[in-house]
Specification:
alpha/beta; Rossmann fold; OB fold (Dihydrolipoamide Acetyltransferase, E2P)
Amino acid sequence: MLYGGICDDEKEIHEEISRFFGFFEESTGIKINLTHFFSGEDLLQHYQSNPSPSFQFLILDIEMSGINGLVTAKHIRSLPNREVAILFLSSYPEYVMESFDVLTFQYLLKPLTYEVFQPKIMRLYNHLKTQVSPVIFLKDEHGQNIVPLAQIIAISKLKHALVQKKLMVITSDQELIITGTISSFSMKLAVPFLLIFRSVIVNMDYIRRFTSKSVVMSNSQEFPISRTQVKQIKDTYAHYMAGKIMI
């Protein structure tokens, strides 16, 4: 499944691109989830409401009323989800050079045909599939979030008595409350993630020091360590760090 956003002020363009993605799904079996925006302002408002939106790619029209696509893209590149692949849509090829300033993945010229669209989207799919930084999809009350695994500091179970199966995912730039269990994430996540307590998983890359009963993370948060596994946890961390600095 790929998650993308389309931002264009023309309804006909949304309908055409949705139809093209329908053809693409039928021919490749690759599922696409699209969110539609009709202005740059609407898209940026979505980013403000969702600190880590679930977009792997965006198709932006350059010539929109209000904030145009280039300005919208510059704002997006300053946000946590700045790595999103951006494809520009325009009737004017003279914007090509300017679009490179915001690390454009692809430039699509109107009028767009499926014969042009299909290979470019396949190239996008192959690019996203082979990205170096693995991500995880986390659903909170606002919707799906794409979170790079490398940005997760810790995952802990919420302790409120009225909360069932709720977890706090703490990243380098936000906190997400999601539904899930520590045991399921413990089985899903590999090194550098480590279960240090029945209700806490930490990313060893963010550990800054140990106390006799806890671990202190880079954001100064402190989490308890299982008493019966203190030595094993410290040994695992020491072995991991030794492996990182080996030449």
